[in-house]
Specification:
- Strand 8 and strand 9 form a beta hairpin.
- The chain is an all-beta fold.
- A 5-stranded mixed β-sheet has the order 1-4-9-8-6, with no helix packed on it.
- Helix content is 0%, strand content 45%.
- The chain has strands at residues 24-26, 31-37, 40-42, 45-48, 52-58, 66-68, 83-88, 92-98, 101-110.
Length: 111
Amino acid sequence: ADGKWDKEEKPSAQTTPTTPSPTVSTVNGTEAVIIIDINGFNPTTLIVNKGTTVTWNNKSTTGHRVIADREEFASGSFGPMASFSWTFNQSGNYTYYCSNHPSLKGTVTVK
């Protein structure tokens, strides 16, 4: 080691989560993405059609575990730069949270 930080090793300037601004996104295709970062889920509300596969991409520096409030799906823990996908085959509102960070919450609405 030469004392220089690798990009992956450099500490983040912001380490305390802030309250995310609610965002809503509608996707008409068969695939959609939710980004997880230090501020939470983006978008916080996603509207999709039945049959859409939603992928949660972890862009933060810590692990996350996405769980539906009614336990329709659960990701297991996944680390930075990893992802979890779920296909929504039934209409309804699916609220979810990160069990590692319970203040992080989101909703997928399936038309």
